[in-house]
Design goal:
Number of strands: 0
Bound molecules: protoporphyrin IX containing FE
Low-confidence stretches: 147-153
Helix content: 55-70%
Number of helices: 7
Strand content: under 5%
Shape: globular
Order of helices and strands: HHHHHHH
CATH architecture of one domain: Orthogonal Bundle
Largest sheet: none
CATH topology of one domain: Globin-like
CATH class of one domain: Mainly Alpha
Radius of gyration: 16 Å
Mean pLDDT: 88
CATH superfamily of one domain: Globins
């Protein structure tokens, strides 16, 4: 990713609406799909991009804006299978690097900060659950997702 110009930095806003979340998701997967490490994972999964982008927009709109809508099971979606070898630490690190730098490139503000914190917690928790390892000492050990759905209680 190239360094941002002053004009680009000045033009950033926070993640406020579903449209912003969708833009984040689109930009993130643009980088992820082209990435030398992550790209082959998505290619091997034969990802239906319009559907995946809609699902991930639902997921992050739930996480960051509290909107209902996401119906999936993220952990199951990342389990190794006969078609997919397990993700390594390098995959998780790259995923997090790209997600964080996409946010910094496009957005600034409290929700953008929360997105980075949530992504980091979820990536470490997901890694721990999928690999059975306990990971770094300073990483969170609380449940992977907020246990209540937005609007459920
Ligand atoms: C090692 C890093 C990661 C890789 C390589 C990866 C890759 C994938 C792939 C291949 C899918 C399935 C797409 C499809 O079949 O359409 C998927 C789904 C998904 N991923 Fe990841 N992912 C990673 C980390 C994460 C993290 C850390 C999060 C959450 C913060 C996340 C959130 C999701 C969600 C919500 C789905 C959709 C699940 C559903 O179907 O409901 N991923 N990911």
């Amino acid at each position: 990713m190239r360094p941002l110009t002053d004009a680009e930095l000045a033009g950033r806003t926070d993640l406020q609406h579903r449209d912003d979340i969708e833009r984040l998701v689109v930009e993130f997967y643009r980088y992820a799909a082209m990435d030398e490490l992550l790209g082959p994972v998505f290619a091997a999964a034969h990802v239906d991009w319009p559907e995946h982008i809609a699902t991930l927009t639902d997921f992050w709109s739930w996480q960051l804006l509290g909107e209902r809508g996401y119906q999936g099971n993220p952990l199951r979606a990342h389990e190794p299978s006969h078609e997919r070898t397990p993700f390594t630490d390098a995959h998780f690190e790259r995923w997090l690097d790209l997600f964080t730098s996409t946010i910094d490139e496009q957005f600034v503000g409290p929700t953008a900060e929360m997105a980075k914190v949530r992504a980091r917690k979820m990536a470490f928790a997901m890694r721990r659950l999928l690999t059975g390892r306990h990971g770094d000492h300073d990483e969170p050990t609380e449940p992977i997702w907020p246990t209540t759905r937005a609007g459920s209680g």
